[in-house]
Structure formats: C-alpha cells, structure tokens
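As the next step, I needed to go through one protein, both as residues and as discrete backbone shape codes, included below for the reader:
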Amino acid sequence: MTNTPQAAGRASMKKELPERFKDYKNVWVFVEIERGKVHPVSWELMGEGRKLADRLGVQLYAVVLGPKTPETKQAIRESYHYGADVCLICEDPALTDYRNAPYTEILTDLVNKHKPEILLLGATPLGRDLAGSVATTLQTGLTADSTELRIDDDNSLAATRPTFGGTLLCTIHTLNFRPQMATVRPRVFGMPKPDTSRAGRMIWEQLRMKEEDIVTKVLEFVADATTNKANLAYADIVVAGGMGLKNEANFRLVKRLAQVLGAEYGCSRPVVQKGWMPAERQIGQTGNTIRPRLYIAAGISGAIQHRVGVEGADLILAINTDPSAKIFEFAHLGIVADALTVLPALADAFERRLGARKMAS
C-alpha cells in the first residue's frame, strides 16, 4: 500500500500494470450469509462492484459460501439479480455457521486459484474478521471501512476512508500486491435495483478442510437481546442530536420528535464519548452509516467523520446556532437557531399535522 505522497504520485503516473498482475482480473464480492439471511451490504457492494467491473471491462463474481440449503440457493439466484455475472459457490456443512478457519481456508483457496483483481467484503463484524484473515494469509493490502471506491487511470483501485480520528480523508492504493481488498460499511452505497431476469455461470468448488480439522465448534447460538433495537442504518427518517443540546436530559427532545415522526434517533460521536447515549446510537463513519429519506441533525457541528456517515441521505436538515458550522456546508436545508427551541416546535407542528390527517381519514 502507499505510505507516502511520493509513492502515490508514482502510482498515478503508471500506465501499465506489472507483468505479474496480468493473470489477475475480475471483481469479486463476498456474499455474507448468516443464519440463512444475506446481509444487505452484500447487495449494496454488488451494485458498486458492477460499476468497477464495467469500468475495467471485466466480469463481476459473487462468492457464495454456506451449507447446502434452500437459503444458499436463493442467495445464488439473487446474486445474479443484483448484478453478478458468475457465482463461485462452495456448499459444505462446515460452512453452516461462520467460523474463521474454514471460511478463510476456502476464500484463500478461491483467490489463489481464480486470481481476482479486486475483492470486496462488507465491514460487518463477520466481514471484518474474515477480510483481515484473508488479507494476512494472502499477504496483500486491505483498506478497511472504505467510503468511496473508484478505478484510477492506471486501472488500480483507489479506496478512500477517513483517518486521524475522522478529521481527514485519505485514498489508499494497493500497488505491489493482488488482489486489492477493501471492506465497506453498510449503507455507504445505495441498494441497486434487482433485475430478476438475470442469470449467469456457476463455478462449484470444494472445501479442503474437514470438520475434524476445525478447532472451533459451535455448541449453541444465543441471540443478542439488544439486536435490532436500533435500526439506524435502514431507517427512512432519522433525528439526531449533538453537543449543542448541552446535556443528557435534553435528548428527550430528540426522542420525542423521532417518536412523532415514526423515526429512529441517534447522536454524534462526542455525545457517546460523554456517556449521554449508547454507542449503538452513534451516527458517522465510526458509528452507523445512514441513508434515510430525511435526516434532522440538531446541535451537530458536522465533522468529517459525521459527514461521511450521513451524506447519502436524500434530505439533510441541520439546526445549529453557529452559522459557520461545517454541517451547513453539506446540509440541504439549514436553520440557524437553538435546537432546544426548534425541536419541540417541530414535534408540536408534526403532531398537529399528523393528528389532523388521521381525523380527515
């Protein structure tokens, strides 16, 4: 990976890839299946992978690993619907539940055999664990938590991510190794529209590792009692508060407006650091990335790491007393006012409007 501006400059001047890279082609997306369900980030990555593959003039592969079940077969079919040309498939009982060893083994074997140019995974707990292990085994570069992917003039992958605690954005190139790997968080990219008429080629592979060779055993699955309590990433409307709300008690205003709108509520990173809200409610590159139809940000300054997490929203309404706050640089609508006054006024207005609509119906 590039470590210096000089190295990045040399990369931008290259016109031809090294000879040892000639065998590496095609873009791969790992399709994450957990307990029979495909994580939506896989389809979001498929949409972005389609763009990268078209830019390079190569094929888009979906990598589907799991047990031989109807759910795995459905994941294969949907991979084509979301843009894949080819499915690389391994069905084995040892892949029923995610364990690092067998998944790393089979994905590493597939890469060594078929030589993809680019490999993308979701930056989920599963994806992060697998990506790090595979990149280490292959001795290649990995850009984690990417917010933008593009193909440069020399046909290499340029992956952009926040750095220095979210205060800057940096673009990383894997110049001397293949494949070029990146993980992307859910909701960074939009969900592509599926085309149910699409189909494609299938390649079946075998897992070399046997169950008796796997040290980790799954004895029981115990669901997290807090799972799905916060669904910020896929909410249509999100209301969030920042340090401009002054104290923890004032977050009741954020929650009330969210309740009136049938929305999710969240906060900026400093609020979590203060202990006013739980980490699962944090919005931004180091928290939840969101793409709602409406995002209301109250008392949030708009640091880069927060911007990265919300700029996919269709409409951003910012409320801040500081007219020079960074959030006004990317918000669609701005109100220069005290959020402690505006939030209850908005809640009252929406409550009246929604109440009148119910009565009329």
The chain has two domains: 11-213, 232-360.
